[in-house]
Amino acid sequence: MIRAFILTLLLLAASAHAEAPLPVTGPFEQGGLLFGEAPPGSQVFLDGQSVPLSPQGNFLLAFDRDAEPAADIQIIYPDGSRLHRVVAIAPRRFKTQRINGLPQSKVVPPEAAWDRIIAERDQLIALRAQSRPEADYLGGFAWPAKGRISGVYGSQRILNGEPRQPHYGIDIAVPTGTPVLAPADGIVVLAHPDLYFAGKTLVIDHGQGLKSSMLHLSEILVPEGTRVTKGQPIAKVGATGRVTGAHLDWRVSWFDRWVDPAQLVPPQ
User: Fold this and answer.
1) Assign residue 253 a region: left if phi > 0, alpha if psi is -120 to 50, beta otherwise?
2) Which DSSP state fits 176?
3) Over the Cα atoms of the chain, what is R_g?
4) CA neighbours within 13 Å on the CB side: how many for 18?
């Protein structure tokens, strides 16, 4: 009798979760970032991969620029019941942007530069793979600088006539020395003086694999390990690395997936 009663409760709970909507908010589209919440102790999976939860049950899901048309999301609750959805991911049409006047060595690097480029790439890949359990991003996001948008997320780049990787951030064209503010709470995990392509670069860890990268800076104001709050001055805009003029390139990543920063902030 007791076993039958427990089985009935589990079946009822599973049925309730099966009918429930996904506990997430955000755009189900390429470049989208979703914010979710589940009871502490739950397990969340995206396309079969485990997703970290904060101690309070907050979690993130993200779809990169070239995400497939569907994603598999599963939540296993502490009582063993499950919520399982296969969701459609809307495609986006991305612009093509042609940029001329770059130093040719930044478009087609000389052979002598490749060891450096590969080492820096591997360092950044390892950094993006790191995750902290705290959900510092819950305080929300704000523009790190405001000005003319000279480059958008996802655009296909043609540099000096050479097709290159898509652009994964937002370019904000403002003068050298313009303050850069922390877009959300977090911890500075990289303050690099000179990456080959990105120049002076600062990376903030917002928790659970979510990070902001600030590229092409003229000055970095906070060292690695500093805890920063949204709106705090952290750097100054510059024109270092592969650029044709002063601007801030703000990028947001969730592990190895780049998401659209414009979806996290209101219009300027």
Assistant:
1) beta
2) T
3) 21
4) 8
CA distance 14 to 252: 35
Global model pTM greater than 0.85:
yes
Contact 58, 135 (CB under 8 A): yes
Which ranges constitute the DSSP H helices of the chain? 2-19, 104-107, 114-128
Do 233 and 181 touch, CB atoms closer than 8 A? yes
d(CA 153, CA 213) in angstroms, rounded, equals 13
216-254 residue pLDDT tens: 999 999 999 999 999 999 999 999 998 889 999 999 999
φ, ψ of residue 80 in degrees (nearest 5): 95, -10
Q: List Cα–Cα distances, 217 to 75, 90, 239, in angstroms.
A: 41, 34, 6
Residue 180 CA to residue 222 CA, distance in Å, equals 11
Pairing of strands 227-228, 186-195: antiparallel
CB 217 within 8 A of CB 200: yes
| pLDDT over 70 at 181, yes or no | yes
Angstrom distances, CA of residue 242 to CA of 106, 196, 198, 265: 6, 8, 6, 26
Q: Using one digit for the tens of pLDDT, what is the confidence trace for 49-96? A: 999 999 999 999 999 999 999 999 999 999 999 999 999 999 999 888
- The tally of CA atoms less than 13 A away on the side-chain side of residue 241 is 23
